[in-house]
Amino acid sequence: MADPRLEVIGRRLAGVKKIIAVSSGKGGVGKSMIATTLALALSRRGYRVGLLDLDFTSPATHVILGVEGLQPEEEKGIIPPVAHGLRYMSIVFYAVDEPAPLRGAAVSEAIIELMAITRWGELDYLVIDMPPGIGDATLDMIRLTPGISFLAVTTPSRVAFETVRKLLRLLRELEVPVVGVVENMVMNPSSRVRSQVEGIGIPYLGAIVFDPEVEEALGDVERLMGTRFAEAVGRIASELSQQIP
Ligand SMILES: Nc1ncnc2c1ncn2[C@@H]1O[C@H](COP(=O)(O)OP(=O)(O)OP(=O)(O)O)[C@@H](O)[C@H]1O
Ligand SMILES: [Mg+2]
């Protein structure tokens, strides 16, 4: 028998126009920074935006937003609290200071549960910060989330890009839309990644410079939004909102 929660998830997401999962084949490439900043940038452009942190092992968006101590409201499910204008949901609300990582089936269970209880309401964009790599969480989200699309993050490193290429191939095989690839932590501008991305027929959404200011701005949204990093993410937000009005 089909899990009745799957139908509930469809209803929970019915008011969300566009779902963008920020993902990469590789860890540490800036997914959480980009997901959070992209959500803030879209929100500042007047859109209704949700941010979902799905990194069960090392959630980070609450640190970037500086919202430790926030709690969701329970009412026929869970209403995500508003953080800096975003409807914000994270696994940290439920697994505070639990050092033991969830494994295998427990990860799927937690994802289904979280997706089934969260009431997003009406949103233009739901941005999802995905855990690193192509794992169960990726496949679960594809299976659970009608209308999901992916934004892939790479760095200029060939090591990173090869894992992203693998992710893009998987998404193509599963017929999951990809909004584009972002190249992060660029120090020496080069068109190598751009031409490879375009070569496989996927939009290259832009390069983000390596910006030492980012570390200082963690937890301080106003400061973050004033960085060159945020400026570059803002250009990507504008590009995306033209692509998906
Ligand atoms: N463009 C940038 N310039 C400078 N530092 C950056 C940039 N992008 C990300 N960082 C820094 O790199 C580190 C990793 O970023 P982040 O946590 O967003 O990566 P991630 O891909 O989400 O990692 P994980 O795979 O562990 O979830 C952070 O300390 C972040 O502040
Ligand atoms: Mg992360």
Any overview of this molecule?
It is built from ten helices and ten strands. By secondary structure, the protein is α/β, with parallel strands linked by helices. The chain has one domain: P-loop containing nucleotide triphosphate hydrolases (Rossmann fold, 3-Layer(aba) Sandwich), CATH 3.40.50. Helix 1 crosses helix 4 and helix 4 packs parallel to helix 5. The mean pLDDT is 92. The structure holds adenosine-5'-triphosphate and magnesium ion. The site of magnesium ion has 5 residues, from helix 2. The site of magnesium ion (MG) has 5 residues, from helix 2.
Could you provide a short overview of the structure?
With 245 residues, the protein is α/β, with parallel strands linked by helices.
How many structural units, i.e. domains? Answer: 1
CATH level-four homologous superfamily name? P-loop containing nucleotide triphosphate hydrolases
Given the C-alpha coordinates, what overall shape results? globular
Q: Indicate the percent of residues in helices.
A: 40-55%
Give, in order, the helices and strands. HEHEHEEEEHEHEHEHEHHH
How many β-strand stretches?
10
Topology (SSEs and partners):
Layout: H1 4-12, E1 16-23, H2 31-44, E2 49-53, H3 61-65, E3 73-74, E4 78-79, E5 82-83, E6 86-90, H4 104-117, E7 123-129, H5 136-144, E8 148-154, H6 158-173, E9 178-186, H7 192-199, E10 204-209, H8 213-217, H9 221-225, H10 228-243
Helix pairs in contact: 1-4, 2-10, 4-5
The structure holds adenosine-5'-triphosphate and magnesium ion.
